[in-house]
Amino acid sequence: CVPSATYVAYVEYVASVTSVASVAYVASVTSVASVAYVAYVAYVAYVEYVEYVASVASVASVTSVASVASVASVASVAYVASLASATSVALSRLSRLSRMSSMSGMSRLSRLSRLSRLSRMSRVSRL
Q: 10 Å Cβ neighbour count for 74?
């Protein structure tokens, strides 16, 4: 039994259409998959970029807070040191003034005692 030419032509046509359809289907599925994969990769890259920017911003803010704290600490230490030196200077001046006043008081007292002795001696000599 020899197949007729029409039947052979029909089978070849169906095979070619099926082949083209299957190739087109595979191509479309592959295209959709590749687009989806590219979109997924882009999304992952975007998420990683956002996380990186957030971590950099976090590190920058922590560094900024630390630098402000260190500057404030240095400033407070400098302020305390200047207060201590000012207090030391004031105390040394007070000490010097008190010594000077006590010495001048002693010299006044010694002058007064000398004068009183002299006046007594002059009274005694007059008598």
A: 10
The DSSP secondary-structure symbol of 1 reads: -
Dmax (CA) of the chain: 185
Work out the angle at residue 39's Cα, subtended by the Cα atoms of residues 36 and 43, and round it to the nearest 5 degrees. Answer: 135
How does the average pLDDT of the chain come out, rounded?
75
Question: Is the pLDDT at 52 greater than 70, yes or no?
Answer: yes
Select from 111, 90, 116, 119 the least CA-distant residue to 103. Answer: 111
pTM of the model: 0.36
Q: Give CA–CA dist 73/16, Å, rounded.
A: 84
Cα(115)–Cα(108) distance, rounded to whole angstroms?
Answer: 10
33-43 per-position pLDDT tens digit? 778 888 888 88
